[in-house]
Amino acid sequence: MAFLGTLLGGTLGFAIGGPIGALIGAGGGHLFDRFRESERRTLAGPNAGVTGNQAEAQVAFSVGLIGLSAKVAKADGRVTPDEIRAFRRVFHFPSRDEARVAAIYNEARQSSDGFEQYAQQLAAILGSRDERCAQILDCLFTIAAADGVFHPNEDRIIREIGRIFGFSDSEVASVRARHQGTAGNGMQGATDTSNYEVLGVAPTASDDEIKSAHRSLVRKFHPDHLVSKGLPDELIEHATERLAAINGAYEAIMKSRSRK
C-alpha cells in the first residue's frame, strides 16, 4: 500500500500530533487523498492484518522522512538542486502528490533546527533501533552526499539522529560507509576498510564472523522484511539498493580474501 495515497487528518481514525502532525498540517491537513482506495485494497489484500497503529507508523515514517530530508539538506546553509533530485530518487511519489509533498518539504527546510523533535517522535512511534530507523539514516546519507560535498553539519545532524534512534556511533558509521565515494569532501573512494564497515565488522574478523554479519544484515534489511514491518512502498527501491550494497561489500571482501 502506498502511504503517499493515504488521507490524513482524522480519516484514518487516529491523529498524529507533535512536530510530525504539524508537518501534516503544512500539507493541507489531508495530504494524502486516496486513502479509501488504499484502505479497501489493504483490507482485501495480502496486508489485510494492518492495524491502526501500523498505519500510523507508515504515515509517520513517510512524513518524518520528508521533514528530516529537508533538515539535512538545509544543514550546509542551502538546499541544492542535486539534494532535491536525490530526495526524489529516494522517495518515489506520484506526480499528483508533488504539491503537497513540496509543502511539507518547504515547511521543514526553512531551518535545520528542530530535527531532534522529528527524530524523537519517529523513535517513539517506530521503536528504538528499529530497522526502519536505520533505513531513514541510509536515505539521509544518500541526500547529504548528493551535491558532492558532505558537509560537517550534515554529518553531525545525521549522527545525532542516529543516536536519538538508539544506534551506536559505529552502527551509524556502518550505514554511512556504503556512501563512500559519492561525495567529494569527507568521503573517499570505496576501500576494503569501507566494505568491512558496511558489514559492521573489523578487518581482522574471521570468515565465519563475516558470513554471520552478512546473514544478519540480509535478514534485517531485506525489502520483504522491511515491507512486512510497514516500510512504505515509496522506499522499496531504495531498500533494494541498500541490500545490493550489503551484498556487494560481502562479495568484495570474500573475493579479496580469496586472493591472499
Describe the structure concisely for a colleague:
By secondary structure, the protein is mainly α.
Give the fraction of residues assigned to helices: 55-70%
Work out the radius of gyration: 18 Å
Order of helices and strands: HHHHHHHHHHHHH
Q: Spans with pLDDT under 50 lasting ≥5 residues? A: 5-14, 30-51, 183-189
Termini gap? 48 Å
Estimated structural class? mainly alpha
Largest sheet data = none
Topology:
Layout: H1 18-26, H2 35-44, H3 52-74, H4 81-90, H5 98-108, H6 115-126, H7 131-144, H8 152-164, H9 169-177, H10 192-199, H11 207-221, H12 223-228, H13 236-258
Helix pairs in contact: 1-3, 1-5, 3-5, 3-6, 3-7, 4-7, 6-8, 7-8, 8-9, 9-10, 10-13, 11-13
What this model shows, in words?
- It contains 13 helices and no strands.
- The chain is mainly alpha-helical and 260 residues long.
- It has one domain (3-258).
- The protein starts with 17 loop residues before the first helix and ends with a helix.
- 43% of the residues are buried.
- Residues 5-14, 30-51 and 183-189 have low confidence and may be disordered.
Keywords:
260 residues; mainly alpha; globular; 13 helices
